[in-house]
Each structure stands twice: as structure tokens, then as C-alpha cells.
Amino acid sequence: MGATDDLPTDDLPTGDLPTGVPIHRLAAALAAVDGVVGVCLGGSRARGTHRPDSDTDLGLYYRGPLDTGALRELAARAAGRPVEVTEPGGWGPWVDGGAWLTVGGARIDFIYRDLDRVRHHWDEARAGRYATGVQAGHPLGFHAHAYPGELALGRVLADPTGELARLRAEVVHYPAALGAALVATARWEAPFTLANAAKAPHDTAYVHGCLFRVVGLLAHALHGRAGRWLINEKGAVDAAGRLPGAPADFARRAHGLFRTDAAAALAEAAALTGEALADG
């Protein structure tokens, strides 16, 4: 395993990590584990939108068998205590697995990404196709085009073969066919969902579930039309409201749907849908 032998437990942060950990040194140690192709900084820290208490997400892009024993040893060395490290698939069908560490009082997440799967869904996105699956922590459903989107919005930290950098150079170009597909889906599904919600106005949970679905569809459609990657529901509404072509005051109006009675919320959601998906 080699690389973990050099990983200190007492000089964890300098550079980009909030913990004192030299981020490139940690990434290099992870990339030296059998099966790991490269490591990418993701989430708000990669985009520069983080808060002081934000997690540090490290995407571990792997291929074939992954030496989770070596990852477990490395994680324990960095954290100064045993850390639970999952096998691939340990967190569900779409978020492969990984580990949650606390190092120097800060949270660092290892998140597995099957590199061949990322490539597959990049090819699908370029063809205007995407899948959505059930995944814990993703109430709207995990959208498979998030895989290339994560890499596009991330920062490659360790890439011994150069494969991650080459793929990232492709995925930074948002596919027009994907954007068109997201808009087309929202055009039929959002009105359909609102029509069903209107049949059960006194079922508050159902109505709010439908409203959440519609808001999510509009956020994805607005990002698709603008050619911007959207990889998570967190912050999606506010981000959509800042896009060119978004309806006036989109974020405030979308959040407000969940603070009013069903009839008013459904009427406003229909108006918002019409504006968000209008041609032009």
C-alpha cells in the first residue's frame, strides 16, 4: 500500500482542506490505492461556494476491484481512529459508497465513482438520454447526468495516468441534446403532476410532494436550457433563479409554494411552469 506509510497524522491542514491536511498529499495517497484511477475535489469547495463548516468531498474514481482494505487503513491513519469504509454499492445503487471521516474537527467524505459508469452516462447525456433512480439523500431521485456534471464542476487533484483530466476536458462542454431532453420532460410532466395534485387538494403531503417534483423539474429544465450542470437538489432552486432566462423572482416564488394553501400554491406553480418553459 506504500503511500499511506507517508501520510502524517499530525500535519493534517494546509492548502485547500480545512483540517490542516495537505490536500494534494492526501489525494496522492488515495490515488495510489489499487483500483483508484484518480481523485477529484467536488462539492461546494471545488466551486468556491463553501462555508467554513462545509464538508470536503473527495471523489474516488475507480475501475475494477477496489482495495477497500487499503482505503480503510489510509482513512484510519488520517483520522487517528478506525473509520467505516464501505464496499462498492454500500450506500445504494447510485452513490456507490465511501467513507465519512472527521480529521482535525473537519468532515472529509470519500465518495466512490465507477469511472466506466461515469463514461457511460456521459455518452448517454450527449445522446440526449438520462436515467433517474431512487437513492437515499436524493428526494427528487438521483439524475445520472450528475456523474459527468460532478467531474465538470470538480477539480482534479490526483491523476497518475491523465485519464480524469482527459475526460474532464470533454464533460465541461454541456450537451445541447441533454438540455433539450430535460426541457421536454418538464413540459409534459410538470403540468401532468400539477393536474394530479389538484385532484387531492386536502392531501397536504401528496400536494407538497407534487410541488417538490415540479420545482425540481423546472430547476433541471432551466439549467438544461442554460447549458449548466445541476448535480444535486441542495441549492438547486436558488441556482436556477440566477440563470439567464429564469422567470422573474423564480427562487422566492418556488420556495413560497410550500408556505401557502394548496389551491394558491397549485395556481402559482402552474404560472411558474408556464413562464419557465415558455419558448424564447
From TrEMBL:
It comes from the Bacteria. CDD domains: NT_KNTase_like. Residues 33-67 form the Polymerase nucleotidyl transferase domain. The lineage of its organism: Bacteria, Bacillati, Actinomycetota, Actinomycetes, Kitasatosporales. It comes from Kitasatospora arboriphila. This is Polymerase nucleotidyl transferase domain-containing protein. SUPFAM superfamilies: Nucleotidyltransferase.
